Amino acid sequence: MATDQKIRVRFAPSPTGFLHIGGLRTALYNYLFARRWGGTFILRIEDTDRTRTVPGGAEGIIRTLRRAGLDYDEGPDVEGQERGKYGPYVQSKRLTIYREHIYKLVTAGAAYQCFCSPEELETVRQIQIAAKQPTIYNKKCREMSSPDRAALIKDGRPHVIRLAIPEEGSTTFSDIIRKEITFENRLIDDSVLLKSDGYPTYHLASVVDDHLMNITQVIRGEEWIPSTPKHVILYRAFGWTPPEFAHLPLLLNPDRSKLSKRQMDVAVENYLDRGYLPEALINFTALLGWNPQADREVYELDELARSFNLPDVNSSGAVVNLEKLGWLNGQHLRRLSKEEYARRAVPYLEAASLITPCPGGWVNEQSGTIFSSQDLQNALSLERERVRNLGDLPEALSFIFGAVPEYDGDLLIWKDAEPARIMKGLGELAEFLELMRDWTESALEARVKAWIDEQGYDTGQILWPMRVALTGRKASPGPFEVAAVLGKERTLARLRKAVEKLS
């Protein structure tokens, strides 16, 4: 792998929809490689397949890359502007460039016009399938005489331009991840380079652009391995030196089938919207096929960039384990400061109508409770060790921000205790707490536990119904944590509501 030259790599997505996890990994590995070696990371939009291009697709990809924290050095932005001296960075704006280069290939005999109709091509394909032969073009038009070809062009016959693959020998290229790969030329298709509508295919456009943009390494998915010998042949036909290639392993479902949206959500934007942190998603994606070979799994982006080594990427498929993503997200959430954690959580609480901005902080409009910034941080700390993404916070903390939660009175009963005993204990607890002035978690815990011993109650007879009364749930943060966050007035109101349920 050559790193003694100025590294220039590109992420070149087609705007056919959302950015998926596989695309994010390709972008990330290009980004990490560029940052590791002080190179340039380029975004190029490959929108020459007009039948599959989705309006707004390019803008969506750009926004997602930005949300993920992958800033590129050259390329387009959502405002239609570009930065970099090798543009345009959108292929549909480079059609003249491709036509100039295809003319050179045809003139040199490295490409030729093909006049076969789609119906003819399909007939040949079915015959090949029946004969169990490779389904490649039969080179009918390649053997056409120059006068016949010229006559059809003059007559306005629709045609494409195909690459003339050498009919003998083999084509070999070196892959940074997979070492040397060889293809027999007789099994390589004379692929279309320029379609009848004047738009190039991926084969022509990517090779021309990679050369003109001085790309030094092409890092892409392994699905492009069969196309790479065609690209090497194209480079040679133009008289250019190919870049280095690195083909990333497939991403797999848990059952080891190829990753698909039928088995799991693969849209990056959806994970970010649900409250997975960009830092966690990047950390998770980086480890899909590569490992820094250290005794930890939690990394920030700059740490990944310092460690990334392209030859260490695995050649075998990587399983996408969403349980691991959840775990990593929890780790990154707990790395945030209280202030930053609250800043990122607020949009999710607001979207769930649990809080609304007001002078001095936020208000829950159902209960009228006002929360200062400190109140909010204290509330969020209750579930910080348990929650796995920010999108879970509204459900996890609804008992804090909303009114007194509804629950079945039977839930208040501790094991086989008599309901009357529980009711009496909660009532006396409320009276005791009403006299307390130091309303902190530590003071509440010390005083209440001492009171329980003095009154002769079992600990569970008080703390279990106290927890349920304050949260309405079996599983929740501890009662003293919750009471400290709720405050004295709301705590007493919920305890008295519980007594009413039992009376």
TrEMBL record:
GO molecular function: ATP binding; glutamate-tRNA ligase activity; tRNA binding; zinc ion binding
Positions that bind ATP: K261
Record field: catalytic activity: tRNA(Glu) + L-glutamate + ATP = L-glutamyl-tRNA(Glu) + AMP + diphosphate
Keywords: Aminoacyl-tRNA synthetase, ATP-binding, Cytoplasm, Ligase, Metal-binding, Nucleotide-binding, Protein biosynthesis, Zinc
Location(s) in or outside the cell: Cytoplasm
Short motif 'KMSKS' region, span: 258-262
GO cellular component, one term: cytoplasm
Cofactor note: Binds 1 zinc ion per subunit.
Protein EC: 6.1.1.17
Cofactor: Zn(2+)
Domain Glutamyl/glutaminyl-tRNA synthetase class Ib catalytic: 6-327
Domain Aminoacyl-tRNA synthetase class I anticodon-binding positions: 343-498
Gene3D superfamilies: 1.10.10.350, HUPs (3.40.50.620)
Positions bound to Zn(2+): C114, C116, C141, E143
Principal location listed in the UniProt entry: cytoplasm
Residue ranges annotated as motif 'HIGH' region: 13-23
GO biological process annotation, one example: glutamyl-tRNA aminoacylation
Family from the record: Belongs to the class-I aminoacyl-tRNA synthetase family. Glutamate--tRNA ligase type 1 subfamily.
Subunit structure as annotated in this protein's UniProt entry: Monomer.
UniProt cross-references to HAMAP family, sorted A to Z: Glu_tRNA_synth_type1
Function: Catalyzes the attachment of glutamate to tRNA(Glu) in a two-step reaction: glutamate is first activated by ATP to form Glu-AMP and then transferred to the acceptor end of tRNA(Glu).
Protein name: Glutamate--tRNA ligase
Protein's gene: gltX
